[in-house]
Amino acid sequence: MAIVRKRNHQDNAATQGGSGRDLFSFVEEIKANGLYETPINVERLAEYLGLDVVQELMDDDISGYLEFRRGQWVAGLNALHHKTRQRFTLAHEMAHFVLHRSDHARFVDNTFTRREGNVDPTESEADRFAAELLMPADRVRGVVGDGVTNVRDLAHEFNVSLLAMRYRLKNLGFRVI
């Protein structure tokens, strides 16, 4: 699959949340601690944040959850989902932790493709955060600029699903053919 440049616009990645932290400050923090290399090691980041990550059997329409229990924040991932999908889910749950944990003690997240109707703004914000964390706009543009234009190759480069890569490319102004 080829990618064709559609338009040039800036991605507004920095989002504010209930904890007073934003994506930009989080990225600066993890860069300073040597944790920001693509593909992002989400398990290492979760450990850095102090999250307990567990895999559990869940209904297929549930991707994961973040909850505070027994004095510990726990990120649950659907054990039946593919590893790349679990990576995005964990990044999404980290977004809730970084941005929204002061607002709620529990987040349960439906599978992205199965969300219906009006999506909660915190869910959209967590998706944008996860996409920027796993597929940084400048890095995606750089890789495409270096000639990698196959969606499968790009998904492999960032260790994400084809679906996540397609959405990211479209949101960055590329046309996926």
Brief overview, please?
The protein is an alpha+beta fold.
Shape: globular
Per DSSP, what share of the residues sits in E-state strands of 2 or more residues? 15-25%
Total domain modules: 1
Helix-strand pattern: EHHEEEHEHHHHE
Strands of the widest sheet, in order across it, are 2-4-3-5
Give the class from helix and strand content and strand pairing: alpha+beta
The total strand number stands at: 6
What is the count of DSSP helices, taking H or I runs of 4+ residues?
7
- What share of the residues lie within helices? 40-55%
Low-confidence spans: 4-18
The whole-number mean of residue pLDDT values reads 87
Mind telling me the C-alpha Rg? 16 Å
Word description of this protein:
- This protein is α+β, with helices and mostly antiparallel strands and 177 residues long.
- It has one domain.
- The chain contains 7 helices and 6 strands; from the N terminus they run βααβββαβααααβ.
- The strands form 2 sheets. Strands 2-4-3-5 form a 4-stranded mixed β-sheet. It has a two-stranded antiparallel sheet with strand order 1-6.
- A hairpin with a 2-residue loop joins β3 and β4 (72-78).
- The longest helix has 18 residues, at 83-100.
- It is globular.
- The N and C termini lie close together (6 Å).
- Residues 4-18 have low confidence and may be disordered.
Write the layout of secondary structure elements.
Layout: E1 3-5, H1 23-32, H2 42-49, E2 52-56, E3 62-69, E4 72-78, H3 83-100, E5 106-110, H4 121-134, H5 137-145, H6 151-158, H7 162-171, E6 174-176
Parallel strand pairs: 2-4
Antiparallel strand pairs: 1-6, 3-4, 3-5
Helix pairs in contact: 2-3, 3-4, 6-7
